[in-house]
Specification:
Chain lengths: 307, 572
């Protein structure tokens, strides 16, 4: 197992390097750079623009810029933002915890709502309850998180005055963003749980367990659900990526601190050290979560061995 | 190694992140143009809603100069909701409008200017200029201190302007405008300085009164290096307390502040306990925070929400006419077919600005007629008679120029179709779609290119598009030079690509004119020159709307109509 984990971690290095180069090229290929972003507000003369480009190192050949960034990266230096000169590491350190907190909260909403609803629908297959749960799931997938966020704000903050919109970094301030982020994922988990569980419930060993006189709850939770969990767990791992991406929108709707708001502004400003480092961190996190999912397989299903 | 069965491919998650970045990148690299210097980076969202209202542009502006807070005034927290978090709050390198809003509370300027262009003392109590408007002498306040307790004096002002003059990478909006005109700054005595300029500058006080022209503490700047923008030390009514990245900036009153400008109407430290700036990109969320009582002041209001908000007794909605160059479209005179004056004039006659105002902006802005806003004394109302909405005349002009209607309604000349591209700066130029329809009605094949941020400045500077949309906010007529002088040919924001020494001479002559009557006459000629040569199509005068809690009083709006000073703010 540890050999497997080490191998996976080692493989992430060339992958992350590829991601850095790819993102660097994407940022450089589009028209405009950080100085033309400033020009939109300042109307600098050609000489002033050249001077700032020189000071920021933007007049150097692309390979030199990339090389400098990679060398810095090897030393653990993510560079400085081209706007405001803040160290990128500091920007990420300040913003990442909030995004992880929101992603985990969204994931919890998705799991806590999705799995029970899926079980409920599977156990009452083809009844009005099942149709109802399916419709709720369909609605969850169809409603854009952005719109849902605005509706939640109108209901819980403006009309009822129960929850804060911005400024509260505690649990209360997390409820609406987590709901807006997690509901669509909950719908996906509901549908997957229902489908998988329906299939498992038809298998021979479930029938055998029931024939042996086990209680319904024991059969579903102890036997059927455990086997149905593998694809659900895989789905949850995949959803981490989309939740992390969805946090970009939700952070903007709720004006929350986070990597999403940071990277959006950085892309608009062509602030490539910030963009690259944010994507790098996101990719690294994603790899880490997937590694964790692989390890969890072995915990849930003892038949799985990594050697 | 046994791979777990039923494990689907998990790369879509990473792909989603790439797709996200690619999507944002492509949105930025897309098509069109935007407002120029000092414009807010978010615009009131336009809608395609019909129904023009007959409401006139609001004028419920607060008092130009605040009156002192009554005894019943309350403190508490004042939350201001802006739209975008600044990258830094550096007094000299301040760039974005939200950064300027914060900086203006902590750093004081030598003088202040109200919306009637009246000049008030600031850190300078008296000023004098030489006859040629090149040497300016300022007497300074004598009891002022920096936030770190060190005294403010003539050397502070010398250090500030000499730093701007000598630094090689100045990025601030006002600093970069001042840098080329500064010759030297000298200390006369402990509280007197002279600033010598390279050329006459009658509007120098207007430059110095910009909220982004606050005097910085150079010692702090040199000590902190690149981190100075995160540890600001000014002399102003508010001191920096903390910046929670991605969330808010908190300022607290400066208890020593007793030397404030009379424009603030505050003789002592601010009444409010904390001034909090939150940055909320989504306009509807910004509005919701006001309605939920989480913020007390919001700006960049969506036009479609204005009527509802103005009818709500809890809030006051104010509209401020922004001086500068009205919202407009340049004509690129270096590119066919807008290199033909008849085509340019045809576009002006074909543009139904009143429909644009009624349907896109709900009647909450006013039509514009030339390159200068009516906010300036130099504005010449005679310009309003020059053109009218007359599509028949537009068709006639195009016919005369040899553009004949083809089978599909698009005009053709020498086998070439009458094609133009309108450049839009996303969320700023929502009128361009009606302009596109207006042009199509008289036989143009008009396309809209949407751009944002750097891709907008690149599109305008490239000269590849005929009709880029623009607008510019500035506080003195003389600042129109930078939009029109041929020195800016081929760079943003000179989307007109007009290179004529006559216009340059007119601009330089007018900006150095000291006599008010002659100055007006000269600017009148410039306005007519630009419109007679059809270098632009003016669309509307921009009103900047802000809403605040009704019991919030005592804040002051600056000369540009955009920034607020909260030194005298209090709750009643």
């Amino acid at each position: 197992m540890s050999y497997y984990i080490l191998k996976r971690v080692a493989l992430t290095v060339p992958m992350l390097l590829g991601i850095v180069i790819l993102v660097f090229m994407m940022v450089k290929l589009i028209p405009g750079d950080a100085v033309s972003a400033m020009q939109g507000q300042l109307k600098l003369s050609a000489e002033q623009m050249a001077s700032i480009r020189h000071a920021l190192g933007l007049d150097q050949p692309l390979y030199v810029q990339l090389g400098n960034y990679l060398l810095g990266l090897a030393r653990g230096d993510l560079g400085r933002s081209l706007f405001g000169a803040r160290p990128v590491r500091e920007l990420i350190t300040a913003n990442l915890p909030a995004t992880i907190q929101l992603t985990i909260a969204g994931m919890l909403v998705a799991i806590v709502l999705g799995i029970p609803l899926g079980i409920f629908a599977a156990l009452r297959q083809n009844t009005a309850w099942d149709v109802g749960a399916t419709l709720v799931g369909l609605g969850g997938v169809s409603i854009p998180a952005f719109w849902l966020g605005l509706m939640l704000i109108q209901l819980f903050a403006v009309t009822l005055g129960w929850l804060p919109i911005t400024g509260d970094r505690g649990l209360r301030g997390l409820i609406m963003p987590a709901l807006a982020l997690g509901l669509a994922e909950a719908a996906i988990i509901t549908r997957l749980t229902r489908a998988t569980l329906v299939e498992v419930l038809r298998t021979d060993y479930v029938r055998t367990a029931r024939a042996k006189g086990l209680a319904d709850g024991g059969v579903v939770i102890g036997h059927a659900l455990r086997n149905a969990l593998l694809p659900i767990l895989t789905m949850i791992g995949m959803q981490f990526g989309s939740l992390f991406g969805g946090a970009v929108i939700i952070e903007n709707v709720f004006a929350r601190q986070g990597i999403g708001t940071l990277v959006t502004q950085a892309v608009i400003n062509r602030d490539f050290p910030v963009v690259q480092s944010c994507v790098l961190v996101a990719a690294a996190l994603y790899v880490l979560v997937n590694l964790l999912v692989d390890v969890l397989y072995a915990v849930i299903d003892p038949r799985i061995k990594y050697s | 190694m046994n791979r777990p069965h039923q494990a689907p491919h998990r790369w879509p998650g990473v792909a989603a992140w790439f797709a996200l970045v690619a999507l944002v990148l492509s949105a930025c690299g897309g098509a069109p143009a935007a407002p120029a210097a000092n414009q807010p980076s978010d615009a009131p969202a336009a809608t395609s809603a019909p129904a023009a209202t007959s409401a006139p542009p609001p004028t419920s502006t607060p008092a130009l100069v605040a009156t002192p807070a009554p005894d019943s005034a309350k403190g508490g927290k004042l939350v201001f909701a802006g739209n975008e978090e600044p990258a830094s709050i550096d007094a000299i390198d301040v760039v974005s409008v939200n950064a300027i809003e914060v900086v203006a509370q902590m750093f004081e300027t030598l003088v202040y200017i109200d919306q009637k262009q009246k000049v008030y003392p600031g850190l300078a109590t008296e000023w004098q200029r030489s006859d040629d408007a090149k040497v300016w002498t300022f007497k300074l306040v004598q009891n002022a201190k920096w936030h770190d307790g060190t005294p403010f004096n003539a050397q502070s002002v010398v250090d500030h302007f000499e730093y701007i003059r000598n630094a090689t990478d100045i990025k601030g909006s006002i600093s970069s405008a001042l840098k080329p005109i500064l010759a030297k700054t000298e200390k006369v005595d402990d509280y007197t300085v002279t600033i010598t300029l390279n050329a006459p500058r009658p509007d120098f006080l207007v430059d110095l009164a910009e909220p982004a022209a606050g005097i910085d503490n150079i010692a702090n700047r040199q000590k902190r290096g690149p981190d100075a923008g995160f540890n600001p030390i000014g002399t102003g009514p508010f001191k920096f307390k903390e910046w929670i990245r991605g969330s808010q900036i908190t300022l607290v009153p400066n208890p020593d502040w007793t030397w404030g400008s009379p424009i603030f109407g505050a003789s002592g430290p601010p009444k409010i306990d904390e001034l909090i700036f939150r940055f909320i990109p989504e306009a509807q969320t910004r509005l919701a925070t006001l309605e939920a009582g989480e913020s007390h002041f919001i700006d960049l209001l969506p036009f479609q929400e204005m009527k509802r908000l103005r009818e709500d007794s809890r809030f006051t909605v104010s509209g401020f006419l922004l001086p500068g160059m009205p919202q407009m479209n340049y004509f690129n005179t270096s590119l066919a077919p807008t290199d033909d004056i008849n085509v340019r004039k045809a576009i002006i006659y074909a543009t139904d600005k009143q429909s644009i105002i009624d349907s896109v902006y709900f009647g909450l802005v006013e039509p514009a007629y030339g390159p200068l806003s009516r906010a300036f004394p130099e504005y010449d109302p005679a310009i309003e008679k020059l053109y009218s909405f007359d599509p028949e005349k537009a068709k006639q002009l195009l016919d005369d120029a040899g553009w004949k209607a083809g089978a599909d309604g698009i005009r053709v000349k020498d086998g070439k179709r009458l094609e133009v591209t309108i450049v839009e700066n996303k969320s700023w130029n929502d009128w361009v779609y009606l302009l596109q329809a207006n042009l199509q009605e008289v036989g143009f094949d008009a396309k809209v290119l949407t751009t944002q941020g750097p891709s907008n400045t690149e599109a305008i500077a490239s000269g590849k598009y005929q009709v880029p949309a623009m607008g510019d906010v500035f506080t003195a007529a003389s600042q129109m030079t930078r939009d029109w002088e041929s020195k800016g040919y081929g760079t943003f924001p000179s989307g007109h690509f007009w290179k004529d020494k006559t216009l340059d001479t007119m601009l330089y002559d007018a900006q150095s004119e000291l006599d008010q009557a002659k100055r007006r006459e000269k600017y009148s000629k410039i306005q007519f020159y630009i419109m007679e040569n059809a270098l632009m199509v003016p669309i509307f005068e921009l009103y900047f709307y802000a809403a605040h809690a009704k019991n919030l009083k005592g804040f002051v709006v600056d000369g540009s109509g955009f920034y607020k000073w909260f030194a005298g703010a209090h709750f009643e």
